[in-house]
């Protein structure tokens, strides 16, 4: 237990084994073999419709179990991006997510996070098309989540690539909306399908943040985007967001991310709490 603790807390790790670099090297080496070692898996978090609390989609979230340590994507995704592993890992995620979603008993979309460097690579569209083809998942059940940062690089190429994906029927969302710079003109050129309001706004709903959330939702409505709220943790937040015009909600209040093997069970029978709260949500 002592040993496990020492490696899971990066601070302790740094002190004992040198520097932050050591931890980064350790993760970098591990990432190089994570797929071959079958250490990666996906969890799926439901995205619920505000009006009837039905499951509309699941977001695929990458998990890395390295020996007895669970490493957070918040820590390892940036390292995978910096060291050139994200394209290979991203392709694995896309294929896995499409295969799992194609196996669900009813049409529910799967939403996959895509890093900038994946979208930058010239074969990205081919990779996506192959994942759809081999899994048999209909294109309109695949949603791709990108961040505003894609527009800091080759803006025109990014926009045209996104348009090609959309012409195939794939839906594109802007993740963590409002946390990075994106000009209103880019928003207009881009015409994504959905924006996901970052959970930092949702968590401030009860205090001074209400006006900001309303403003962000108004911008999204002005561009005709569907709006997903991320990080919904309480019933009060879910109700307030529905009143503000949010179409979909995602967060621990509805469900934490679910391991792949338990998703089917969740689709067939969402937890009792959800069904109870359902009634409350639909009455608003
Ligand atoms: P994200 O795409 O914004 O995903 C939402 C994150 O918020 C997830 O963290 C999820 O578990 C967490 N979350 C959901 N509901 C709640 C809530 O009610 N409260 C709180 N406190 N958190 C909530 P996770 O799984 O640790 O992923 C973190 C980030 O790592 C993701 O943020 C995404 O940026 C990145 N990521 C995860 N999987 C992938 C992937 O396959 N590819 C890429 N490129 N990035 C990924
Ligand atoms: Mg996301
Ligand atoms: Mg997000
Ligand atoms: Mg994110």
TrEMBL record:
Species per Swiss-Prot/TrEMBL record: Paraglaciecola mesophila
Top-level division of the source organism's lineage: Bacteria
UniProt protein name: EAL domain-containing protein
Keyword terms, alphabetized: Membrane, Transmembrane, Transmembrane helix
Domain EAL: 24-271
